[in-house]
Amino acid sequence: MVEFNGTYKHDKDENFQEVLAKIGIGFMLRKVMMLAKPSVEVKVEGDIWTILAHTPIKTITITFKLGQETDMEFLTGGRQR
Questions:
Q1: Which InterPro entries did the record assign (predicted)?
Q2: Domain, as residue range, for 20
Q3: How confident is residue 7, by pLDDT bands cut at 50, 70 and 90?
């Protein structure tokens, strides 16, 4: 199995601003989000995955078990299942 544990550094954005606009993110928040260069930390323990996205604004933690639905929080404050 591929090893996913580790910290990943943001490299570049391609069409990110357009995606944010398409999903309804306002102009000012899009500009702030474009400045954020998150690092992502991945921890895998068996079937349990934890992903931490660190930005200057906020750290978002998503923990889930493979094969099960989970709620996810976004920088915008919204949640999605």
A1: Calycin, Fatty_acid-bd, ILBP
A2: 6-80
A3: very high
Domain contains 29: yes
**How do residues 61-79 score in pLDDT, each as one tens digit?**
889 998 888 777 665 565 5
| Among 10, 22, 5, residue whose Cα is nearest residue 56 | 10
Determine, yes or no, domain membership for 14. Answer: yes
pLDDT for 41-51, tens place per residue? 999 999 999 99
Average pLDDT of span 17-29: 89
Contacts of 43 (CB under 8 A, 6+ apart): 5, 49, 50, 51, 52
pTM of the model: 0.69
Domain at 42, CATH number: 2.40.128.20
- The vertex-40 CA angle with 38 and 44, nearest 5°, equals 170
